[in-house]
Amino acid sequence: MMNRITYGALGVKIAALLIWAVLLFAPFLFQDVRALEVAARVLIFIALVASYDLLIGYTGIVSFAHTMFFGFGAYGVAIALKHYGPGWAEVALGALAGLVVSAIVAAAIGLLSLRVKAIFFAMITLAAGSVVLVLASQMSQFTGGEDGMTYAAPALFKPATKLLIDAHGKVVSLFGVKLNGKLAAYYFVFVFSGLVFAAMLRLVLSPLGTVLKAIRENEGRAEAIGYRVVAYRTFVFTISAVAASLIGSVYAVWLKYTGPDTTLSFAIMVDILLMVVIGGMGTMWGAVIGAALLVVAQFYLRDIMEAAATALAPIPPAAALMNPDRWLLWLGLLFILLVYFFPKGIAGTAMEKGKR
After folding, report:
1. Which of 103, 196, 254, 271 is the most exposed place for a label (fewest CB within 10 A)?
2. What per-residue confidence (pLDDT) applies to 4?
3. Which residues, other chains included, contact 266 with Cβ-Cβ below 8 Å and sequence gap of 6+?
4. Range of the domain at 265
5. Burial class (CB in 10 A: 0-12, 13-18, 19+), 333
6. In the 3-class helix/strand/coil scheme, how is the chain assigned residue by residue?
7. CATH number of the domain to which 95 belongs
């Protein structure tokens, strides 16, 4: 008989793996453009939230600059594709440039600032992120300014690209879905998001993950037994930044547009924080649950409310309450309920109850 201590963790893992399975077959399950965009966004945020959970959940580092590193990767690829052409060499060059810049900036911020108290470090990262946002908005000759940049992706990812053709020269379909460049672009996002998530999961399950938890729980004790706390924190901060930069590069290839609002805005940072809280800090699997729930709510809550308002039309007060324009109100209420019933996030609370 299975020990009760594993029930909560097993349930969380099964839920997360089911979400991954849905995302794997999303192009065949939901055959419309909007659903595919939502699925790709969920994948991007799963990897992004997992890299941030490595910071805040496992090491106790509160940073508001995570979107800055996300933006470095996205802008690196965008600039390369815009100015040098839509080739794989340009994608690799832009992604590498974003990774290098992210690693250097993260290491510099970590070495200079991680010695201070948590709140002061958070303010330093907020200032750094704000500076990069302003620079991206003003350096229009390189970044396109506030309008951002549009560019072409590699030919493989163009919707007109035929991955397989039949004897008549027509693109082959599988379960009613054409095997074209759009499908290839989606699975490009799926593979890289999965790799980043797997790397973060492997990292926290290694001995390094145990050290990070020790630093989070009692920094003084960890330092007293010989761990160089600042060095570990700087290393983790840099790894997290590199992961965010890589997924930013992937997002730039998928979206074929990069601008301050899509990569560097504080609203994205708030979304990341909400996803971590909803999923559960320090669980890693919670990143899958939190990202899926919030992204789906952001895209489909208005539609649900519109249907509810139509159904409640004979009751004007109820219909007015379900007005789609009030979707943010209901999203806020849902978030409050989730925090109340799942104080440690969905994954964190489930795991804790499973141990009892």
Report:
1. 103
2. 47
3. 64, 67, 129, 133
4. 4-355
5. exposed
6. CCCHHHHHHHHHHHHHHHHHHHHHCHHHHCCCHHHHHHHHHHHHHHHHHHHHHHHHCCCCCCCCCHHHHHHHHHHHHHHHHHHHCCCHHHHHHHHHHHHHHHHHHHHHHHHHHCCCCHHHHHHHHHHHHHHHHHHHHHCHHHHCHHHCEECCCCHHHCCCCECCECCCCCECEECCEECEHHHHHHHHHHHHHHHHHHHHHHHHHCHHHHHHHHHHHCHHHHHHCCCCHHHHHHHHHHHHHHHHHHHHHHHHHHHCEECHHHHCCHHHHHHHHHHHHHHCCCCCHHHHHHHHHHHHHHHHHHHHHHHHHHHCCCCHHHHHHCCHHHHHHHHHHHHHHHHHHCCCHHHHHHHHHHHC
7. 1.10.3470
The amino acid that residue 57 corresponds to is: G
- Tokens 């901060």, residue? 237
Long-range contacts from 289-292, C-beta under 8 angstroms, 24+ separation: 289/12, 289/15, 289/16, 289/19, 289/346, 289/347, 290/49, 290/345, 290/346, 291/42, 291/45, 291/46, 291/48, 291/49, 292/19, 292/42, 292/46
Specify the residue for token string 């470090």: 121
Phi then psi for residue 123, to 5 deg, are: -70, -35
Backbone phi and psi for residue 262, each to the nearest 5 degrees, phi listed first: -95, -15
- At 178, give phi and psi (nearest 5°): -70, 135
Tell me how far apart the alpha carbons of residues 14 and 21 are, in angstroms, rounded to a whole number.
10
Nearest alpha carbon to residue 347 among 272, 277, 298: 277
List the structure tokens of 277: 């809280």
Give 149's strand partners.
Answer: 258
Are 193 and 185 in contact by the 8 Å Cβ rule? The answer is no
Structurally, the chain folds into a number of domains equal to 1
pTM of the model: 0.91
Residue ranges, the chain, pLDDT below 50: 1-5
| Contact assessment for residue 184 and residue 156, using Cβ atoms and an 8 Å cutoff | yes
- Give me the pLDDT at residue 1, please: 37
pLDDT tens-digit map of 323-345: 888 888 888 888 888 888 888 88
